[in-house]
Amino acid sequence: MELTRRRQSMSYLTKQKAGKILVGDTFQIARQAALAKESHANVIDATVGALFDDDQQFYEYKTVTRMIKRLAVAKHYAYAPTSGGDAFKKHISDWVFGPYATMITNEFHHDVVATPGASGALYNTFMNYLDEHDTLIMPDIYWTNYLVMLGNINAKHLTYPLFKEGAFHFDAFVDATKKVLEHHQKIVCLFNDPAHNPTGYSLSLDEWTRIYDYLNGLVTEGAEVIVLYDLAYLDYEGETHLESRRLFEALKAIETDILVILAFSGSKSFSLYGLRLGAQIALSRNKQHIKAFKNAAVYSARGTWSCPPSTGPLMLGQLFSDDLQTKKFAKELDRARVMLRARAEVFLGEAKIAGLPTYPYRGGFFITIPVEDPDQAFDRLAGIHIYTIPVDQGIRIAISSIPMSLITGMARRIKNALT
Ligand SMILES: Cc1ncc(COP(=O)(O)O)c(C=O)c1O
What we know:
CATH superfamily of the largest domain: Type I PLP-dependent aspartate aminotransferase-like (Major domain)
Radius of gyration: 22 Å
Number of strands: 14
Shape: globular
Structural class: alpha/beta
Helix content: 40-55%
Strand content: 15-25%
Bound molecules: pyridoxal-5'-phosphate
CATH architecture of the largest domain: 3-Layer(aba) Sandwich
Distance between the termini: 58 Å
């Protein structure tokens, strides 16, 4: 009897996991929207961080589908190398860095490890670079899943205000780094750029250069600096592939031992959300940092998901070894950018007329409306069958998933519901 009672009150879970429960997650809210659609015809589902065309179907890259179909069945069945392999490293580096790939190879040491989506890249970085006494520094408006990842490994974080007068709040960032450096030598700073989730903001070249200049100074004074650069929406910013890569110019400002780890998302760039294609890309002027990165990243990848799904890296191999298909894919991507931009222009134009404020948007899947009480705003909008995602200090609208026909008139409806 005594034993039974004790068992009921005890958790079999580890101390770290006991009591942890996923609430308010984007996938859960998306499910609410899906349920509402079953009973109401006029539901607008602005929850999903995926790209849909104007017929409300997944934006399918036909070239990507064609490349996958070209693969022999046995290729999908076989295990992939844990790191993704040398061909994967080359294809990802060339795609991500574009016109800067040669500069990266010539001026930096760099390496790549395949991960299940950008999520795997972020998690692998948190796992390997945040000890229990370390603190991740990030802006106060962020993709909410960062907190789940940090919670999963009991890592601490410190936020600073992202904006001051519509631009990056550099001074607040500096204050946050100083606070952490009062007690520790090491800082890990997370930036989600370009086309930040949830605001759609992109740092300017000047803002990035100022950040690296400042971080160079910290390293010179003895600090260890890691920049975690989540560029999940890289391919949906700017008008062309070339333009979206313009911010890599700022990497040239790195003069010291800073370690930059980029998180790349194949979910977004190739619309392969379910296939879990991603990469962790590290670069530094210090060879030892890259060697240590590769060893630890492969070790922890093998120790968690073991190896990436084979299909993604093999699809990339097919796509990027065929110039014609690569060009076709780039054109499809340009069309996706045009579609998103057109939606953003209508929404932002109507928001301006309606007097609905938004955070500064430069590109990407989301526009966010600043509100004081995000949960209350969510309820009010759900009341008129518009489903959004409450984030810190705002309500996120996924223009990526709403057809133009529904975007039109939406800003006015939101304004009316919130006032
Ligand atoms: C800012 C940001 N980073 C990373 C991810 C992870 O994407 P995935 O793991 O599907 O590549 C997402 C997905 O929504 C995101 O919004």
